[in-house]
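Example record

One chain of 313 residues, shown exactly as stored in the release files.
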Amino acid sequence: MIARIRRNARGNRNRAVANAIGDDCAILRFSGGAEILLTTDFSIEGTHFRREWHAPDSAGHRCLARGLSDIAAMGGEPAAAFLSLAMPADLPQKWADGFISGLLRLAKKHKVELAGGDISVAPLICADIVVVGHAPRGSAISRSGAKPGHSIYVTGELGQAAAVLASLRADKKISPRSAPGRRHFYPEPRVEVGQHLRRHKLASAMIDISDGLSTDLSHICQESGVAALIAEHSIPRPSGWEAGSSSLHFALHGGDDYELLFTAPSSAEIPRKIAGVTITPIGQITDGKRGEIFLTDSHGQRKKLTPGGWQVF
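Predicted structure tokens for this chain:
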């Protein structure tokens, strides 16, 4: 669907738009020295959250986190958010207040102002968040800069958010304030990490892990025209979480982590931690078929990795 829209939109160009569809944010360039970063994301009841699972402040937090994570993936500094919120007419006011409270709490942490939006009625809750950020002209990190020989890195740990979701689907109780629970109910977008990578010109390409490592790495490979090789044993997974044999599956395909996935030249000195967040090398960009990913398993065997993350339809 996105590819079809992208093809059809190519004829409608404006000189202020520096990049077309394909990155986490659009880049708008006007007079002056900054680029405007703009992203938009839906949070829809039944698709992105469920009222029986997610407290209203969790739904609000997650709504804004999605947009902030896109700004982080470009190395940008968020400034403002716009929320369009459609709700059933009989939705309790307390729920709506809790949603806004969770969103504003995260906004305050990242110095983001809720600057406008829209309110409407709908059969279920639909929240569309627009986040506006900025970066110095020419410095925003896209998905298209990865080259053969560049190393692949991820922030934090992968798979716990998806493991919590699987537990919820199995009718298991998960405390939202526990260590495992927070990564699903209150994910922390890596805004400071993205800014550090941009300021120090360390990352050649970057994306946030919202759809799953396998799918989001394929996006970088597609946009950069390269292939990738990653090592199973290198993928950071949380300790102390009983995910069993599914932990690798959750880490590869689960999504909802809102960590950063980035590439860097071999000459780049990547710290082990940035803003208190662990940085882990997991593989290398290769000169292979565009978008192709291979995984080296625990026995040293190489196999093709098919993207298995979130798909809308």
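Notes: The two ends are 10 Å apart (CA to CA).
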